[in-house]
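Progress report, Aim 2. The chain analyzed during this reporting quarter is listed below.
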Amino acid sequence: MTAKIIDGKAIAAQIREEAKNEVEALKDRGVTPCLAAVLVGDVAASKVYVKNKRQACEKVGITSVLRALAADVSEPELLKLIDELNNDPAVHGILVQLPLPKHIDETKVIEAIDPSKDVDGFHPFNVGRLVIGLDTFRSCTPAGVQQLLLRSGIEVAGKHVVIIGRSNIVGKPLANIVVQKQKGANATVTICHSRTKNLNEICRQADILISALGQPAFVKPDMVKPGAVVIDVGINRIDCPSSDKGYKLVGDVDFEPVSKVASAITPVPGGVGPMTVAMLMVNTVKAARMALDRAS
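Predicted structure tokens for the chain:
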């Protein structure tokens, strides 16, 4: 068996094109969606992530604003900036790039964002709405995983979905998305983590196995039921002297051997990664549409 490769780049391109069409429709109604990105410090990875998100905005017609702050900015100063963005009617979405410096309370910052502009889907208000099945901003990576499954024709209803990882960014919201009584969901969900006993045995029960652990090549073929769908959320940088950069990106899944057991699998890079940014565009457009509806 050779697994079907789920092409996240192609699916993300479809979603960005749909978002672009929605942006044009909003512009016809006099509104241009706007995303404000807040970057604190000089962490190289964070700068790259913000750059990629702003480039995606440009491609779909969303205005992007960058507010860059020094690494030693005080928490009150950062909160003041968020308050200003909350009260700016031209800004529809606010993205604070994580992680933040250790002297700043990330929870306090997330809670300071107006839930109607929380395009990352991290605010407790939006998380709560997700849990009880109401329409809301969904965290971009989990929402992207669901779209990968939907648009690849992979049935989720009635399937056993096993998620390795319990973070607030991926594991928990993803479990809440696929368990809902909705299209692309209705799954039976098991969340595994560092304290899970008999992990391999549980993983082998999965019809859809999703790893969001952050450990290179952690998922081996003996953890995968033959014919299962494997979604690799992990992005890990490992040394690679033969590469011009000196490193390469790999996922949580030992791709080559697992692809001989699974029926479908996402690559790293080119799988879940592009979907995260695409869903950020979807959320920003949604925020602009909601703001327009409230004003009319």
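The chain has two domains: 30-114, 140-275. The domain at 140-275 is CATH 3.40.50.720 (Rossmann fold). These observations will guide the mutagenesis work planned for the next reporting period.
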